[in-house]
Design goal:
By secondary structure, the chain is mostly helical. The chain has helices at residues 2-6, 20-24, 37-44, 54-57, 81-87, 101-124, 132-153, 187-204, 220-234, 237-245, 281-289, 293-299, 303-311, 328-331, 344-350, 406-419, 423-434, 443-446, 450-461, 484-503, 510-516, and strands at residues 64-66, 254-256, 274-276, 318-322, 340-342, 382-389, 394-405, 521-524, 530-533. The chain is globular and about 75 Å long.
Length: 566
């Protein structure tokens, strides 16, 4: 079955109302008939990827280390072997595991199949009254799954060559044959189809009242989040600002920070230091809707409760939630299950200081008997273990995650403001973000200012080999690094990237920032072997599954690997 669906034969999704084994024993013409709107709604529940990319993206990122063994001194079980291939950026980061890159590819095309069958059913039903939100949901699900595949399995972030780089098959109709042949077309062509589905979906997208569990469906806010992420990855910053501002108000009422003489504090460039007024509508919105990590520690007594707090679909900050099959909870537990995870120093740096001047507040835990260099554990990922055999105590692990949340919109807008020269607006967004993330509750302590950002990042920005100064990022900034404005603009981007790295630890989102901002990554094995993933290294593009050759797909070319393991 794994080989079949990896070859893009995703007709199995119409077996929603029967078991997989039973469906595979039947001819397609005997499948369940989707003959009313209620069945369409039920089918759309499966139009979201049933797997998670974080498990095999996080080990590819910077800050990861080889600890030599798991916490108890043993080697990881076979269930975690795929993390080894991800850590080494092997061409095929798959070990026939249900939580690896190939499984995610399969899950995305399975979701696409469900969306296509829903659209076909709606056409056959004549689009009955009240069906428009579900047609829009199907289009948005199809756009989302294709976009995820596009950004992972193609050289999407090579902007200059999107018109020639191979894309992925954009499937728009249900399959009726096994191993149907497909053309990869180009990244630009695939992206255009994603945006067409998005635009069409936005026209009829539903509101929360259209769904029994709206946080698990594409509502208008979720559609805006998808549009925002696409715009951010394309570096379409005006659109990022527009979509983010439809989700989070922009502050309009500010207050001065004053010095000891109660005079307005000035930055080195002569500008006044101002922050959003605590009673400004945007401040109040963020204070009410962003998740407060400080309160989580006081409200909940143990790690299990904290995990639920971070992933509860009832939280105001969660825009779109999911519960896919995944070992993410276990791979995130430091070295408890896998030897390849964050190094202790890197873990503390990610969750430690920031340019606001007040450290992030992270309710981290440690493990008894862990080595001194082992990282702690942030109880963030909640696992639902579905028991399939009570007697044998066996089953399947599912995790609760947010596919979109408000924090992403706020940080994306801050980056967009920085890149469009609206520095004070970027500072305001960073300040509103930090009000729910730092140890202090006194805004006079934790605000972001021009001088704070410049002072915090000047040392790293003066390094000639820093990625912000590399040829790969040349031409992106409006001011020269030698100027105050040049340091401020780059520093603001770094502040956003640091906040995103902290916010999305364990969730794999750092990988997209590595690709977007051409960040080199060096991994070292315990044996001393190391390799650096440079911005022009083909290993940054995850290889499509081998079995897709059954559908006529050519694999990604791997002909430029500057630094092998040595």
């Amino acid at each position: 079955m794994r080989k079949l669906i990896a070859g893009l034969s995703v007709v199995f999704m119409v077996g929603l109302f029967a078991s997989c084994n039973k469906f595979l024993d039947e001819m397609p013409d005997n499948r369940t008939q989707i003959d009313n709107l209620e069945k369409v709604k039920a089918l759309l529940v499966t139009a979201y990827p049933a797997k998670c990319y974080a498990t095999w993206l996080e080990p590819r990122c910077d800050g990861m280390a080889d600890h030599g063994a798991t916490l108890d001194g043993t080697q990881p079980s076979a269930s975690f072997a795929f993390i080894y291939t991800a850590y080494r950026w092997d061409e095929y980061p798959s070990m026939e595991n249900d939580d690896d890159a190939e499984a995610y590819w399969t899950a995305c095309y399975g979701a696409i199949a469900a969306a296509n069958h829903a659209l076909e059913a709606l056409d056959e039903l004549g689009h009955p009254k009240g069906s428009e939100p579900y047609r829009a949901e199907a289009l948005l699900c199809r756009a989302y799954a294709h976009f995820c595949l596009l950004t992972l399995f193609t050289d999407f972030f090579d902007e200059a060559n999107r018109g020639t780089n191979p894309g992925i098959p954009y499937v728009t109709e249900p399959e009726d044959v096994i191993n149907k042949q497909y053309d990869r077309e180009t990244v630009a062509a695939t992206l255009a189809k994603v945006k067409d589905d998005l635009a069409e979906g936005l026209k009829g997208v539903g509101t929360a009242s259209d769904f029994v569990q709206p946080k698990f469906h594409f509502t208008l806010d979720a559609a805006r989040m998808l549009a925002l992420r696409i715009a951010l990855f394309e570096r379409d910053y005006p659109s990022v600002i527009s979509y983010a501002s439809q989700l989070i108000p922009q502050p309009t009422n500010f207050v001065n920070i004053v010095d000891q003489q109660q005079q307005p504090l000035l930055n080195a460039d002569g500008s006044e230091v101002k922050i959003p007024h605590p009673n400004d509508v945007a401040s109040l919105f963020c204070g009410s809707n962003l998740f407060d990590w400080r309160s989580a520690m006081s409200m909940y007594s143990g790690s299990t409760e904290l995990q639920l707090a971070f992933s509860n679909a009832d939280n105001a900050n969660v825009i779109l939630a999911a519960e896919p099959y995944s070992l993410l909870n276990r791979t995130a537990m430091s070295t408890a299950y896998t030897r390849y995870t964050h190094g202790g120093k890197e873990f503390n740096a990610i969750l430690g200081a920031n340019a606001s001047g007040v450290n992030w507040y992270m309710p981290t835990y440690g493990f008894n008997g862990a080595p001194a260099d082992a990282p702690g554990f942030l109880p963030k990922i909640y696992e639902d273990f579905k028991v399939s055999s009570i007697n044998a105590n066996t089953g399947q692990p599912y995790v609760r995650i947010a596919l979109f949340r408000l924090e992403e919109a706020l940080l994306a807008r801050a980056e967009a403001y920085a890149m469009t020269g609206e520095y004070d607006k970027a500072l305001a967004d960073l300040t509103m973000f930090s009000q729910r993330r730092v140890q202090s509750t006194n805004i006079v302590e934790y605000y972001y200012s021009r001088d704070k950002v410049v002072d915090y990042y000047t040392d790293v920005l003066t390094l000639s080999d820093h990625y912000m100064n590399s040829d790969f990022n040349a031409g992106r900034f409006s001011a020269a690094l030698s100027t105050y404005e040049g340091k401020l603009q780059r520093g603001l981007v770094l502040a956003v990237l640091d906040a995103r790295r902290m916010e999305y630890i364990y969730e794999g989102m750092r990988w997209f920032d590595i690709l977007r901002w051409n960040i080199p990554v060096t991994h070292t094995m315990l044996s001393g072997e190391s390799s650096t993933l440079t911005p022009d290294d083909d290993r940054r593009v995850i290889q499509i599954p081998e079995t897709t050759s059954l559908s006529g797909l050519e694999k990604n070319p791997y002909d430029h690997i500057p630094q092998p393991w040595s």
